[in-house]
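R.M. (postdoc): so does anyone remember the format we settled on? I'll just put the structure tokens first.
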């Protein structure tokens, strides 16, 4: 479990919270996990419960209950080890705390993250000539931390770079207050070329911490040093932060990362399969991409789980095996894949183009557009192959369907009418 968690939890948090956890044993079917202090137990419960649960499920292969207990590892009366000091190290030493594979090369770009990726690349290449601060926000598991590490990988070797989670920053500040070492604390954070702050929503609500962060920010900003901030919500919604901080966050560039579309999900799965040297049939990739839609960490977890099951059973990865593995992890089964006919009916209802026109040879603009919407949805929602979609739509070939899909995919980026049509069609589908 720890091995898995190490891959998904940022290194400083991992070292702080997980390094000293250990298995105590099973008690009435419940796995007991020992942690070193009440404080650690609370932090783990508040922030990492889902991650622990996910890691456990993927190791055990089914849902497994667990509880966190404050427990000393040696029962010989030795006091529990003090928690290790929180870590965030200035480059070049900063490198070890970065996940080695969180690089730009391993980051798959799609519509959902294109802007954030472009901005991160720009910052890594020309910090201080890029918008400052760069503020990236988006839901859990969508690649925000990955991008911050990727920037640090680029800048770390030549510029003073600090990557730190807001939580660690807070802990260090509190320690510095207690130990009267504010000088060093300030020295550290105010003398960098790039400060990368992860999960700003976890900065303490305490006035003092926010005050200090405000000054860190200003010290860097006025000297034209680059700041990059990640958050799970936009600056406007960071209501626990002081207004003056929030407004500063909007001085530069704010970009969001949204849930990846099906093509991006597929590309991420392919790239991961390749990196892990797994042989995964295309239909299995499609199946995973369909079942796990809004969290890339879970997307990767699903593939890990399938690969683990295949290894365990000494079988190749097949569709059947994948279905079993996925059923075990998605405890609430996803709503069934809509039938193609449901999609066509919904398209017809919203566009006023009858189904038999969609499957006909008619080529008027409106008909072609509605047909392209159908192609897009048959791919995105019903995960049909391009060839299957061609058959469903009256015997069109694979490249025609691909063209239609791409057209809508492109339009989605620029045309609000298309977005609205798709939203209405999805709603119509749900209502059936
Ligand atoms: P967040 O910080 O937004 O919660 P992470 O950066 O930790 O998310 O990403 C979760 C996982 O998904 C990581 O393993 C990361 O490498 C992977 N991931 C996220 N986005 C991409 C992407 N665009 N391409 C490849 N892997 C990605
Ligand atoms: Mg993160």
């Amino acid at each position: 479990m720890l091995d898995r968690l190490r891959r998904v939890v940022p290194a400083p948090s991992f070292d702080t919270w997980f390094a000293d956890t250990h298995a105590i044993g099973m008690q009435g079917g419940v796995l007991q996990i020992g942690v070193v202090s009440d404080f650690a137990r609370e932090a783990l419960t508040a922030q990492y419960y889902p991650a622990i649960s996910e890691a456990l499920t993927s190791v055990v292969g089914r849902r497994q209950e667990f509880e966190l207990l404050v427990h000393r590892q040696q029962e010989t009366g030795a006091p529990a080890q003090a928690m290790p000091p929180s870590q965030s190290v200035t480059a070049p030493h900063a490198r070890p705390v970065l996940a080695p594979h969180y690089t730009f090369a391993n980051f798959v770009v799609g519509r959902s993250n294109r802007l954030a990726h472009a901005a991160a690349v720009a910052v890594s290449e020309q910090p201080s000539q890029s918008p400052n601060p760069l503020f990236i926000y988006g839901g859990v598991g969508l690649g925000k931390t990955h991008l911050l590490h990727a920037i640090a990988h680029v800048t770390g070797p030549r510029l003073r770079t600090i990557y730190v989670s807001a939580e660690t920053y807070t802990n260090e500040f509190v320690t510095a207050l207690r130990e009267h070492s504010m000088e060093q604390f300030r020295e550290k954070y105010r003398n960098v070329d790039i400060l990368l702050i992860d999960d700003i929503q976890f900065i303490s609500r305490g006035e003092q911490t926010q005050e200090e962060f405000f000054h860190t920010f200003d010290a860097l900003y006025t000297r034209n040093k680059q700041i990059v901030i990640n958050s799970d919500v936009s600056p406007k919604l960071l209501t626990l932060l002081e207004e003056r901080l929030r407004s500063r966050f909007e001085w530069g560039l704010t970009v969001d990362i949204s849930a990846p579309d099906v093509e991006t999900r597929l590309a991420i799965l392919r790239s991961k399969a390749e990196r892990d040297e797994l042989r995964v049939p295309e239909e299995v990739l499609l199946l995973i991409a369909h079942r796990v839609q809004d969290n890339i960490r879970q997307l990767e977890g699903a593939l890990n789980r399938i690969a683990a099951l295949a290894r365990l059973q000494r079988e190749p990865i097949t569709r059947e095996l994948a279905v079993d593995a996925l059923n075990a992890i998605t405890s609430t089964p996803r709503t069934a894949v809509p039938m193609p006919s449901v999609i066509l009916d919904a398209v017809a209802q919203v566009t006023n183009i009858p189904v038999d026109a969609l499957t006909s040879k008619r080529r008027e603009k409106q008909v072609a557009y509605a047909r392209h919407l159908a192609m897009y949805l048959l791919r995105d929602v019903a995960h049909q192959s391009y060839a299957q979609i061609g058959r469903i739509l009256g015997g069109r070939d694979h490249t025609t369907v691909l063209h239609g899909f791409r057209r809508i995919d492109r339009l989605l980026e620029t045309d609000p009418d298309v977005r609205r049509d798709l939203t209405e069609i999805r709603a119509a589908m749900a209502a059936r």
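R.M.: ...and that's the designed sequence above, right after the tokens. Also worth knowing: The beta strands are 22-27, 30-35, 66-70, 134-138, 161-165, 194-198, 226-231, 253-257. DSSP finds 19 helices and eight strands in the chain.
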